[in-house]
Amino acid sequence: MQHEQIAPSDLSAPSDLSAPATGQTAHQAAAQPEPVTLPLTRAAGCPFDPPAELAELREQQPLRPMRYPDGHVGWLATGHAVTRAIAADPRFSSRYELLRLPLPGGPPGPLPPAQIGDLTGIDAPEHTRYRRLLAGKFTVRRMRLLTERVEQITADHLDAMERQGPVVDLVQAFAHPVPALMICELLGVPQSDRAGFQEHAAVLSSPDAGLEAQMAALTALTECVGELVPAKRAHPTDDLLSDLTTSELTDEELAGIGGFLLAAGLDTTANMLGLGTFALLSHPEQAAALRADPGLADQAVEELLRYLSIAHTGVRAALEDVELDGQLIKAGDTVTVSVSAANRDPLKFPDPDTLDLQRKATGHLAFGHGAHQCLGQQLARVEMRVAFPALFRRFPTLRLAVPPEDVPLRDAMNIHGVYQLPVTWDKE
């Protein structure tokens, strides 16, 4: 799911970061390093690691000037504490129209405002109103009640894989359809409409689709949900969309929120399952540990979330001058937060570049932090806690069917993952 909050825990509070780290005031910190551009290229043979330059930048200065593709000079946050502080601070906005894109290839000029129901691109009070209506629908208890259904859907797709293969593309056979079915069932999308929904979602995650096509796909998803709303109002069923029709939300808001939830739920968990399986196959001792101890599933999922950080980059805009980590961020400056670098910060996670399922990865930022923390994170956790152990129990000899370097990666996407993952196993 997309980032959409965490209670303050063991990290430095924002107030701790307001004091200049170097002993200088922000205004005295005039000798700034030259602005950097956002490192995007992962090293060959390291599909799970963020670009190596991010670690160098984090070690030098975890919050530093960055030049954006449109020439704007803003900031890049790479440390865990400063990234967490920015995400929790309401002086930083998520409104699209205030942001500069850190990735090349975006449209010239300002971004359009978020569509109705898109929680990622709005601030309080509008965002708070939506969150209050939705948060109770995605609680830990409610999502755990779905476990039995997730287990059934997972088993059905593993059965189908067994009949079809070996060899199969794990993305198409397992990683994509399991979360897709769950979010469609949760929202109450009829069986007859699900293929259409998934087609639009595929455009959203396609490397060949430009921003215009992706916006059109999001609009199409929203329109499809919009057509469901009157039916849910007239004949409510046992699903989230029907439940929300009893709230104060208008039809237009319901359509927008439904489209947003579908788009988010169809892509992110799928990429965690695909890339997570690739990572476990590349670390067979970790896969063996998970297979041997199903009780390891909860912390294994948290470690995979930290290690992979598939939603690797976030953006905020300062609404006022903010002193943070010894720097003065001026009103209007865009700040890019590198979640993948933050989750590899050795000041937070010892030996951070090692995948260790025995690690307690508490405090990772894979689901974001603050008001925009991922709304559907508990659903994603349930899906992964069921899917990973079930996959490796069913196919104990599961392995890649191609050399690792031939697995196509989603390098250019804002959600990291794999386009395909050909796998094979020994038949009994």
From TrEMBL:
<keyword id="KW-0560">Oxidoreductase</keyword>
<keyword id="KW-0349">Heme</keyword>
<dbReference type="Pfam" id="PF00067">
    <property type="entry name" value="p450"/>
</dbReference>
<dbReference type="InterPro" id="IPR002397">
    <property type="entry name" value="Cyt_P450_B"/>
</dbReference>
<keyword id="KW-0408">Iron</keyword>
<dbReference type="GO" id="GO:0016491">
    <property type="term" value="F:oxidoreductase activity"/>
</dbReference>
<dbReference type="InterPro" id="IPR036396">
    <property type="entry name" value="Cyt_P450_sf"/>
</dbReference>
<feature type="region of interest" description="Disordered">
    <location>
        <begin position="1"/>
        <end position="33"/>
    </location>
</feature>
<keyword id="KW-0503">Monooxygenase</keyword>
<protein>
    <submittedName>
        <fullName>Pentalenic acid synthase</fullName>
        <ecNumber>1.14.15.11</ecNumber>
    </submittedName>
</protein>
<dbReference type="InterPro" id="IPR017972">
    <property type="entry name" value="Cyt_P450_CS"/>
</dbReference>
<keyword id="KW-0479">Metal-binding</keyword>
<comment type="similarity">
    <text>Belongs to the cytochrome P450 family.</text>
</comment>
<feature type="compositionally biased region" description="Low complexity">
    <location>
        <begin position="19"/>
        <end position="33"/>
    </location>
</feature>
<dbReference type="InterPro" id="IPR001128">
    <property type="entry name" value="Cyt_P450"/>
</dbReference>
